[in-house]
Specification:
heterodimer, A: about 375 residues, alpha+beta, Rossmann fold, OB fold (Dihydrolipoamide Acetyltransferase, E2P), six-stranded mixed β-sheet, five-stranded antiparallel β-sheet, 21 strands, about 20% helix, B: about 550 residues, MetI-like fold, about 75% helix, about 0% strand, globular
Chain lengths: ~375, ~550
């Protein structure tokens, strides 16, 4: 994997999150989890601040759910330490079982107790507390299910089940709340609706939360910070917009947005590409060291626009289009057989095979990576 | 779309229901009526008893004693089965028990030993002059207490019926979503607390299903209490009948049927109240609990159960093979090859008849779309729940009173087998019919096949494995059926079972070793059929 050293964006981690107190609640230090010869999580370090919602985002199999289970105490790290509020929970020869960890977990399938009603589920973790009943009422109100308290889980809709799962984990007031793919069991429309709602509930409860997902839109929209994971490691950590705009690695770039790469050669203060020359001012960070070398410039669909033109002046041809209602994404095959995608309003229709010129219309510096 | 019994059929938009010929319904209903008829003969015979006499018989302290004995036995055996079966299921599913796969199979195996064979093995093993005493004599053991009465019956029945609880509990544990245990643990419950508050409530229906099977089996078993001389319904019905107190035998039979019905109703109410349990979820299995210092006790427990339930009975039978016994010297009880042929012949006839009867009933139940269409299928289970002694007796009454031409004929015997075991064929056939995509039939119909023709060309080839599996099950269970065979066989008609019974009664245990081992083998085969069938379904 080639890291792009020169274009270091502003130090991301210092740019404040919503709650800038900065006190760290959960610390992972050099955490590794091996299954036989396979390593699911490798030397992972992470610090989660009080009150923030941090999302681990990555493709399936990248180790994000394993990380969550290590924090919950449902799995034990091979090496490294997990610390909550200064207490070492795993590592250094210690292993605190999940029930003594002060960590809540919302499961992907919600894992509601099918034999208990809504109130029974929420009260489950409140044994031995004096204000159990009041706390259940409080949480029912928080998640808006007061009139459903007597229903069984099987009588609830997916969204309601999720809210019960959330309330159940919040009830014992955990120091850290973990959410494992919390929206993946919901249908698409509900998913978007529940994102806002869950974020609202978490913020109202003021809980520190770590969520895990493979859905970039979800991660970018609900999180205070995202950590992009690949192959058991964190590739990049920062505020969603910063990570999206300045992917530090080719993996992050290709994972976020519908990225295409445009190969080019650096010539002094321009980069020569299939779409003409691009001033180096328009790309992210100093490129001098790469003079004469080939680089790949990251272009997302909204960075490009296709313009119908004559065959002789065309950069390439439209080979495919995806219509998603408000917009088209056209795939254009360039003359050197590279392919790029262009984002267009739904009224701009091109025909298959139509010759087009492609303009770079980005109003921000483009990220780039040395060609591998 | 879902039928009243909760089965859902595939196929989304406005599928046209395959219209079933009404002759199918008529045939099925007629068959169901015939299969239900034995209940009528018992009731009719019981009704003949003059009411004053009936009342005094029913209120007799002896009758009360029978009721108490039977309920006591059901209670003790069911309780014992739970104490053995549930821990075994938990150990083999949820812990790191060493040799787990081995124990998983071994724990289910005692089911292959027909309980009367187990009973007779135990009776011959224990006791002052039993096999065990013989083995232990060099060690100075002179007396081993005999196993009779409640304790003997309960021990034997528990050992050979706990696998019902073990199997159903295991199934519940396997389908149980392990993430809810993890959820409980993140909600501050340790493993033990999570078991009591989460696992147990959810596997309760599975445990209850197994307990019901044990209770019904215990109530209907005739061989074990007869051998152990414990006066429960089945034994007393047989005794009274043999002493020509037929009216009293009929009254006791009715009482036993009422008791059986009571257990079924109670179970139905328990399962109705488990609304909300068994929500199917796509979770993963719970992680295995390390046993730690409990490993050795757990192993000893598994080994102890296997020793009593498998090694003792099979060991005793094998020992009889090699041990010179007075039995071999005794004349008049020579085993004849014809007995084996008789067994195979009636069992084969019963299997064939059962499949023919089951086919229309199973098809109607699987494909029909009203509550009415599963009625004949439900009706067949009445015969299944009917204790063999009661069924045998009712057909004796039928033969004596209304149809002397069929009394003590093979036809009547085969009919009794069909009544008792046809649900096994209906069950297998129905599940294989359900696996046939109804769209295949629709496709055949759309290409111009009439209903019967499409059934023959599309459905039948696909359900053939089910037909054979169902037939095999009936065949194998018929081979080891005891009470109805004793009551209904034609004079001089001997089978494996009647032969074992006779030599056992005379105390010539050695003679029974070979046929008993054959029957154990037959039972093992039927278990294989069941297991193969269930793995086909999943």
């Amino acid at each position: 994997m080639s890291r792009n050293e020169p274009p270091e964006p502003e130090p991301v981690s210092e740019r404040a999150t919503t709650d800038a107190t900065g006190a760290s609640v959960l610390e992972l230090d050099g955490v590794t989890r091996e299954f036989g010869a396979e390593s699911a999580v490798t030397d992972l370090s992470l610090s989660v601040r009080r009150g923030e919602l941090l999302t681990l985002l990555g493709p399936s199999g990248c180790g994000k759910t394993t990380t969550l289970r290590l924090v919950a105490g449902l799995d034990e790290p091979t090496a490294g330490t997990v610390t909550i509020g200064g207490d070492v929970l795993a590592g250094n020869g210690r292993f605190v079982p999940p029930e003594k960890r002060d960590v809540g977990l919302v499961f992907q399938n919600f894992a509601l107790f099918p034999h208990l009603d809504v109130a029974g589920n929420i009260a489950f973790g409140l044994r031995g507390t004096d204000h159990g009943e009041e706390r259940v009422d409080e949480l029912l109100e928080l998640v808006g299910l007061t009139e459903h308290r007597g229903k069984m889980p099987s009588q609830l809709s997916g969204g309601q089940q999720q809210r019960v799962a959330l309330a159940r984990s919040l009830a014992p007031e955990p120091a850290v709340l973990l959410l494992d793919e919390p929206f993946s069991n919901l249908d698409v429309r509900l998913r978007v609706e529940m994102r806002e709602e869950v974020r609202g509930i978490l913020k109202a409860a003021g809980v520190t939360a770590v969520s895990v997902t493979h859905d970039q839109e979800e991660a970018l929209s609900i999180s205070d910070r995202v950590a992009i994971m690949n192959d058991g490691r964190i590739e990049q950590l920062g505020q969603p917009e910063v990570v999206f705009e300045n992917p530090e690695s080719r993996f992050v770039a290709s994972f976020l947005g519908r990225a295409s790469f445009l190969t080019g050669r650096v010539r002094g203060d321009v980069v020569e590409t299939q779409l003409g020359t691009l001033p180096t001012d328009n790309i992210n960070g100093p490129v001098e060291a790469y003079d004469g070398a080939r680089i790949d410039v990251l272009v997302r669909p909204d960075d490009l626009a296709a313009v119908p033109t004559a065959e002789s002046t065309a950069d390439g041809h439209v080979v495919n289009r995806q219509y998603n209602g408000p917009a088209f994404i056209y795939r254009v095959e360039l003359r050197n057989s590279e392919a790029v995608r262009c984002h267009h309003n739904h009224v701009e229709t091109f025909e298959h095979g139509q010759p087009v010129a492609v303009d770079i219309v980005a109003d921000h510096p483009l990220a780039w990576y040395p060609t591998e | 779309m879902a039928t009243p019994d909760g089965r859902t059929y595939g196929g989304g938009f406005g599928r046209i229901r395959e219209s079933l010929p009404s002759t199918l319904s008529v045939v099925s209903v007629l068959l169901a009526v015939v299969l239900l008829s034995p209940v009528a003969w018992v009731l009719l015979r019981a009704g003949e008893v003059e009411s004053g006499r009936a009342a005094s018989l029913l209120l007799d302290p002896d009758t009360l004693q029978i009721v108490v004995n039977s309920l006591l036995l059901v209670g003790v055996v069911t309780g014992g089965s739970l104490l053995v079966g549930v821990p075994l299921a938990i150990l083999t599913v949820q812990t790191d028990l060493p040799f787990r796969r081995f124990w998983t199979v071994v724990a289910a195996l005692p089911l292959v030993i027909p309980s009367y064979i187990g009973a007779f093995a135990f009776v011959s093993a224990f006791g002052p002059r039993g096999v065990l005493q013989g083995i232990l004599a060099p060690l100075g053991v002179e007396r081993i207490p005999a196993m009779f009465g409640l304790s003997g019956t309960a021990v034997v029945l528990t050992l050979f019926t706990y696998p019902y609880v073990y199997i159903t509990t295991r199934a519940a544990l396997l389908s149980f979503d392990g993430t809810v245990i993890e959820a409980a643990r993140t909600l501050n419950h340790n493993r033990r607390e999570a078991f009591w508050r989460v696992t147990l409530p959810q596997i309760k229906p599975g445990i209850a299903a197994g307990a019901l099977l044990v209770a019904l089996y215990t109530l209907s078993d005739f061989g074990t209490p007869q051998i152990m001389r414990y006066d429960v319904f089945t034994r007393m019905i047989f005794v009274e009948y043999s002493n020509f107190n037929r009216g009293f035998a009929a009254l006791l039979s009715v009482l036993l049927l009422v008791l059986t019905l009571g257990i079924l109703v109670w179970e139905a109410r328990v399962s109705a109240s488990r609304e909300g349990a068994h929500v199917s979820t796509t979770g993963h299995r719970a992680g295995r609990v390390p046993l730690g210092k409990w490993t050795v006790p757990a192993l000893l427990f598994c080994a102890g159960v296997a020793f009593l339930g498998l090694v003792v009975p099979v060991g005793v039978l094998v020992m009889w093979l090699f041990r010179p016994s007075p039995g071999y010297a005794a004349g008049g009880f020579e085993f004849q090859f014809a007995y084996a042929w008789n067994s195979v012949f009636v069992a084969g006839a019963a299997a064939l008849a059962a499949v023919l009867v089951a086919l229309p009933i199973a098809y109607l139940s699987a494909r029909g779309d009203s509550w009415f269409s599963s009625l004949p299928e439900r009706a067949t289970y009445v015969g299944y729940a009917m204790p063999g002694v009661v069924l045998g007796l009712s057909l004796v009454f039928l033969g004596l009173k209304y149809a002397s031409g069929i009394y003590r004929t093979l036809g009547l015997l085969v009919f009794a087998y069909v009544v008792r075991f046809v649900p096994q064929a209906v069950g297998t056939l129905e599940s294989s019919v359900l696996q046939v995509d109804p769209k295949h039939v629709e496709a055949a119909r759309s290409m111009g096949d009439a209903p019967v023709r499409s059934f023959r060309r599309v459905v039948l080839p696909q359900v053939t494995p089910g037909v054979f599996a169902g037939g095999a099950l009936v065949f194998l269970t018929t081979m080891k059926e005891l009470p109805a065979t004793l009551l209904l066989r034609p004079a001089g008609f001997e089978t494996f079972v009647t032969y074992i019974w006779q030599v056992q009664e005379q105390g010539y245990y050695g003679q029974a070793a070979v046929p008993a081992l054959v029957l154990v083998g037959v039972s093992a085969l039927s278990m294989l059929v069941i297991l193969r069938g269930s793995s086909d379904v999943t």
